[in-house]
């Protein structure tokens, strides 16, 4: 009942403020095309292609499988980690429990996005992008080590027992990778545009009802709903503030509902546990800005 009320309330808001909703959707579409698509699509296709090539012999060594998941998943951008772990679960390379923890550990923005868009365009220097990227991966690796400790018992008792889901193979792994990548890209585009529009509408409503700072309100709401729009808003309103780099780090670590929705949809398709992922997000929001503070 509550869900229905919220949905109808949002429908009414969108009808009453079509211009604001349009501006938010347009901004989200532009950010997707300019900041996400060029950095995300090539890596997703290559990662999917690699995962769909039939392997004559799957490694029984846990650490090799975990490192494969981390390297492929953590350097491709959101939500490549979820795609990689889900695909490895389908291929029988990971158990469901392993996949749940690796979903949390193998979750990071792409290097091209951080160095190119955030570092060069937002922070104004590539070196700042490198330090932010290092902070994100240091936090991820700490959680990854925590993951390995939790999975230690399973390595001893269930090292060769893996779930093998029905994952049909064909003679065209490249074409399969393009097909799979297109659905992921559509999911990313849909969530980015929708949550950008929703953030804009709610910002307008709150600013009208309450006496609040528009810049702060817009940045907070967009950070909650859509990460890329959030960092762009933070740049527009806090660029000269000394804490600006740490605001950017916190927003990227928070991810926003848009990215969480992408991960939830992908993980739901193979029934992955979500609790470790939620724990890792809470850890990263605190850890990444803290590590960046020491690096800067």
From TrEMBL:
Report the transmembrane regions from the record: 31-51, 71-89, 101-120, 132-151, 180-198, 205-225, 245-266, 278-295
Record's keyword terms, sorted: Membrane, Transmembrane, Transmembrane helix
User: What InterPro entries does the record tag this protein with?
Assistant: MFS_trans_sf
Where in this chain does the entry annotate a coiled-coil region? none
The protein here is known as Sporulation integral membrane protein YlbJ
Species source reads Sporosarcina quadrami
């Amino acid at each position: 009942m509550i869900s229905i009320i919220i949905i109808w309330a949002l429908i009414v808001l969108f009808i009453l403020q079509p211009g604001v909703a349009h501006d938010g959707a347009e901004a989200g579409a532009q950010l997707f095309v300019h900041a996400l698509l060029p950095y995300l699509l090539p890596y997703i296709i290559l990662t999917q292609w690699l995962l769909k090539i039939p392997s004559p012999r799957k490694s029984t060594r846990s650490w090799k499988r975990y490192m494969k998941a981390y390297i492929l998943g953590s350097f491709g951008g959101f939500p490549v980690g979820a795609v990689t772990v889900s695909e490895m679960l389908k291929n029988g390379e990971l158990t469901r429990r392993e996949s749940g923890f690796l979903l949390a550990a193998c979750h990071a923005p792409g290097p091209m996005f951080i160095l190119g868009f955030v570092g060069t365009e937002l922070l104004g220097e590539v070196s700042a992008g490198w330090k932010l990227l290092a902070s994100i991966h240091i936090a991820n690796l700490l959680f990854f080590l925590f993951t390995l400790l939790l999975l230690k018992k399973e390595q001893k008792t269930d090292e060769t027992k893996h779930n093998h889901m029905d994952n049909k193979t064909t003679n065209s792994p490249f074409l399969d990778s393009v097909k799979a990548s297109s659905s992921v890209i559509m999911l990313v585009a849909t969530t980015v545009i929708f949550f950008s529009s929703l953030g804009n509408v709610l910002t307008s409503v709150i600013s009208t009802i309450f006496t609040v700072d528009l810049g702060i309100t817009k940045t907070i709401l967009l950070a909650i709903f859509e990460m890329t729009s959030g960092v762009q808003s933070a740049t527009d309103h806090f660029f000269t503030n000394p804490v600006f780099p740490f605001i950017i780090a916190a927003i990227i670590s928070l991810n926003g509902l848009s990215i969480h929705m992408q991960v939830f949809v992908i993980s739901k398709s193979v029934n992955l546990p979500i609790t470790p992922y939620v724990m890792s997000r809470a850890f990263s929001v605190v850890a990444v800005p803290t590590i960046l503070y020491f690096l800067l």
